[in-house]
Amino acid sequence: MQGKPRPPATAAEAISRMDQYVALGLIGQQEVAQLLGLNVTDLTCLGHVLGAGDTPLAAGDLAALTNLTTGAVTGVLNRLERAGYAHRRPDPADRRRVRVVADPAAAVRIFSVYQPFYDRLGAVFAEYSPDEIAVIADWFGRATVEIRAHLDRLRSGELDSAAP
User: Fold this and answer.
1) What tens digit of pLDDT does each residue of 85-126 get?
2) DSSP H stretches of helix in the chain
3) Do 57 and 49 meet the contact criterion of CB atoms below 8 Å apart?
């Protein structure tokens, strides 16, 4: 499949569109979180748990994926368990560690909320060639590395808001 001709865009225009997408996504996540009786951080963590599929995450893995402290992840897991969305299971390879699994009924509910959006995105991706999709996937992967680095700088105090 060959991609459709695209209008030209500058890096600044692409960043502006990304900002719009991210801003709307944040509002959307807040609305989904409210619908499910969660906060956005807990919903984000639950998304990572669901995304892990048949390879349940360790709590430390979840902390690394979300850039949260292990203490914060413990609080998230406590709330997700109380709400019935996830459960801790002993790691079969190391009984000192726990793995996090989603409750199957909760997973069905969450997928029912997200699937219509994913279907719409699938229709958008269908208009791109495999090479174009590879570029998009590469960009998201590389941008994720950059946002992690930026968050690390923010948390270290390196980027003080009072600095010029």
Assistant:
1) 999 999 888 888 889 999 999 999 999 999 999 999 999 999
2) 11-36, 40-51, 59-66, 70-82, 104-125, 130-156
3) yes
